User: Which sequence fits this backbone?
């Protein structure tokens, strides 16, 4: 056990760590790897059980892929967060596939799915942790679904621009229409058309430098 | 205990029943009601913790509702199935609201949310049951979302496989998933996933040699 480089990290981020036997801890450590992914790497493509991913630094994006390669972002994971949907062998009741990319350069601990599944089958605390993490993501996905299915596009784009502006602390959103479309699960043409409409209303100004928000109150009124 | 009209039903449909103490069983029975809903009744409107619903007969429809009254059906529950999303007080990680209607005349046992939550907090088997039931519904919801987003992919892939088979005069399509994706203007991951679905339905068999069409009539029915 004293050799396990993972045990400090796991004892901090896995609430079940204290409930495990020495031998189970050793098993989880032995089946773990530390990975560094350059920005843009596909980490999990839904086809196999990649394992339980614990993000140490960076940002992972979890998404669905449509028939034309259209992506719907479900949620993002930051340092200290855990991806369990990439370990399909752990949860039998999960019958869908998601994709996971490193959105920034990211460092992750990956626990082998089989080892995690074995221990989850015998230690209730581990199983409850895996299930609770998944149920939390269910809420995220329902939120996205509401955004996509129920909200009109002008409202969604307004929310996106306000969110981006708040996140970056700038009134200029430096993303291409393509990128915005990807983040919103929409098509570039739709974003371009809607931005043109916003510009004609004096809400934004679109240039090579990005999308400058000119009239925040008006944008907020759309939300 | 001998007076509890619910205990026969619960011992059949709650896998954790055997793990409960006499007193916990009595608590669940005492906080239960048997309800008969005419077709079309709204049973749960998302605003409070209605309780855990066990369907005895009939059919419940679980759906989302937009501000403008637009509905999206998430799934249906039949006799013997359990609705846990109507007991928001049981699962803290659930932060969204769903609506539940009786789609047909339905008879249900409803366990009070507080009683269920109390016991779920102290008995791991109950908590695991509540979480697993919820995670199973997560898969249903993802399926709905995929249907909406990936609508015609199964149809398109079926047409492609039948065309290829007719063109080559063979029941085995000797193309990689990558090649098929390219021909169809889709992504490899999407083709792989849909082939996996076809395989699970017994329509094709995927191997190194290619994609063997096992059930042509079933494939044709998709078109």
Assistant:
């Amino acid at each position: 056990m004293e050799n396990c480089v993972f045990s400090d990290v796991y004892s901090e981020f896995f609430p079940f760590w204290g409930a495990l036997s020495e031998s189970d801890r050793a098993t989880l450590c032995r089946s773990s790897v530390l990975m560094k992914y350059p920005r843009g790497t596909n980490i999990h493509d839904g086809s196999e059980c990649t394992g339980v991913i614990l993000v140490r630094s960076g940002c992972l994006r979890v998404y669905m892929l449509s028939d034309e390669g259209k992506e719907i972002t479900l949620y993002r994971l930051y340092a200290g967060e855990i991806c369990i949907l990439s370990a399909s062998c752990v949860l039998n009741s999960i019958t869908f596939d998601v994709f996971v990319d490193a959105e920034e350069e990211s460092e992750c601990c990956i626990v082998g799915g089989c080892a995690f599944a074995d221990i989850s089958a015998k230690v209730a605390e581990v199983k409850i942790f895996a299930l609770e993490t998944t149920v939390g993501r269910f809420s995220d996905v329902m939120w996205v679904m509401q955004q996509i299915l129920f909200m009109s596009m002008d409202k969604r784009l307004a929310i996106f621009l306000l969110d981006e502006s708040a996140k970056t602390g700038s009134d200029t959103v430096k993303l291409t229409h393509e990128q915005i479309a990807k983040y919103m699960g929409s098509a570039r043409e739709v974003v371009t058309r809607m931005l043109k409409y916003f510009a004609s209303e004096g809400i934004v100004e679109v240039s090579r430098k990005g999308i400058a928000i000119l009239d925040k109150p008006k944008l907020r009124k759309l939300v």
Summary: The longest strand of chain A covers residues 71-78. Chain A touches chain B at residues 45-47, 64-70, 72, 91, 93-97, 99, 124-125, 127-128, 131-132, 134-139, 141-143, 145-146, 149-151 (CB under 8 Å). The mean pLDDT of chain A is 88. Chain A has eight helices and eleven strands.
